[in-house]
Model the fold of this input.
Amino acid sequence: MNNRIPKAKRNKRVIIILYLLISSTILSACEGTVGRREIEDLGIVTAIGVDYVNDEVIVTLEVVNPLASSISAQASSTKTEGQKYVYPQGRGKTIKDAISNINLYFDKKIFLSHSNILVLGEEFAKRGTIDLMDFFIRDSQPREDMYIVVAKGARASDIIGVKAGLGRPTGTYLYDTLNNFSSNGKSINISIAEKYRYYYDVSNEPVIGLVQLKEVVRSDDELKKEEQTAKVLDVAGGAVLSRDRLVGYFDGDEMMGFNFIVGDFKRGTIVFRTPVEDKDKKGTIIGADGVFTSLDIVSAKTKREITVNDGKIHLTIDVKLKAGLNEINQALDVIDEEVMTRIEKACSDKVKELISTTLEKGQKEFKQDSFSIGVTVHQQHPKLWKEIATDWNNIFPEITYDVKVETTIVKIGLMNLPANLRRK
Amino acid sequence: MKEQVSTRQMIYVLVLNRIGTIITIMSIIHMGPGNQDIWIMMILSTFYCLLFNLPFLFLSMRFSKSSIIGYMEKIFGKFIGKILGVAYGLFFMRIAILYYYIEIQMIRTTFMEELSPIIIVTVLMIVSIYIASRGFEVSVRTIEFFGPIVIGSIIFYIVLGFNNIDLTVLLPIYQDSSLASLSMGALEASLIFTDPVILSMNFPSLSNKKDAGKIIVISKIFSQLIIILMLIATQVSLGVEQARHSNFPFLTYVRLVRTYSIFERIEAVFLITWIIIVTTRVVSYLYISGKAFKEVFNKKDIKPFIYAVGIILGIIIYYISDVNPRLAYLYGRKTQEYYYYFIFNIGIPILAIITYYIRGRDFKKQERLGN
Done:
């Protein structure tokens, strides 16, 4: 049998292979018009800070130096050569202008795709951000899932460069800290895409994450006196926007209330005063008696219901919690069913208080709906919504509400009775 | 050798064609009420799509050995038939231009920002001309191979974005829209698909022509299901209004996927899926426009027509991509587009059916004479 490929067919194959080789070479390797990106030519950005000062945009970037690991600090000829991260800053009329201006003195081409954090300076956030934020959703390099935070009481440039989490860059440190949101409930991690999703809801005013500089004591004997305090970034709380302007903040506890209201509370610790009625009911105190109890919320479900009576809107927030007993300072017999019920009730009361305080602040202080309650009215009473949608921010402060919380303790930890109580 | 296309292959061709219409700019989110009820509109549009396919199906079954150009000549006579043939050829070229333009825009905006359009156009045109010149059978075999991979990938992307999904975005259901607005939107949505034309142009190659009805029903229902899933995933993760502001909503949805720190930044993978879909789609238009001109000029070889059409398309696409861009036309609302689609998808075939019945005696006589 003749296995030889006919000449014409062979020629065609050669042409196809040549074509594939040439086109792949053109697409992947050629310089100039093709847009080649080599890692050593890029300034990979891990965090972006934006400030607005004297009618000028200031962009501060945290850029990774990929060659730093291969050049030790001693071997490097310049100071920046051995640094893992550098912080170039650019000024301009727009964000793009400011970033482009960085490249007038910074040798690496700025590459924004790896940035997970966008920090807005407080002044810039108060001014309103929507016009200048366009770059971050129009350009393909910045990612829509990048977290957006406001620097409380500071400029973004003060935040970028703070490395408190095991010496990692601000971007990674802040990103991971914000991701702890699911285990503390005192903050919020909102991406650019989520922020815009809320922004486009006419009835809803977005709440985004915040970051503030704090000083903490470092307990390390080997440190010099001036090194014994360190700057850290604290993400407790939330920045309240009116459309795109910063109007105030929720603190950490208020953010817990906020997260319960909007149904985003994943996990977290509720600390409340232990009910005193059952104190030393069955046991004997053998140690100091404390005041607080901590419950770890393992799951939280929020249901919101809108009722309309005589044209007045009433909101019912129904929260169902499952919790684990995490810490009890008081000498209580926690294996007694009645005691357990009282602890559950005390926890529910605390959550009610958190929710009410936050809702009150939204209604009385900010006078705007930051909780998507308008969205709930729209979903549950679409006909009514058509009539009131445009006037919602005037109606929201007047709505009445009640909060129902039901806590169920599902685990009590490794101990039954606390150590300050003798078991009979 | 006569080309043969199986039922299964044709279903894949039509399904990918319909998905390709939606996947890039997702024009359906602007149609009808343009709100959270678009998925209802798309369910409604399935019935319109089936209904609008009937005229072409009827004509194809009557003239099973001819494509659109062939039976138009038989029904309207040589002169008008040829004019209609040229019109259909131009119509397919126009769609090809539009979709190549969209493809180039997406590549330039998102994946290869600095790549010169002349290189994109050249590479795309050479690839498309090569595939189309190999014949329809080769194209459908390729589509049959890639079809399940592409469909599986789309479902995979939708599943991966589960943590961004908030189904309450779809509430309230059917409260902010009227039946009239949903019907109008469904009508618009059913007009933008050109699968009836593709089926009719390639009907003579179909190995089992009795399966035509089955092909239409399965391809429409299956593709609508995938389109609705893509639509819902995009709307519930971006929100209704943000999705409307996005030029490439499904790409934005894919860019948001971040699941367990393993599946993130997967748009490079999506790019492969997307390129397969849009390339198969534009190649099919290049092929059928070449075929239309081949039949108009009564030639046996399709290749010269594909080369000619391909080169003309390349020049026009480069012109509108880089020399004289038509961005407002691409992303804006295009009412006149619906007229074109209506005329070529429904108007002309209905007119042909009416003429066919008016000239019924002639056809019966021709049939008796064995012509």
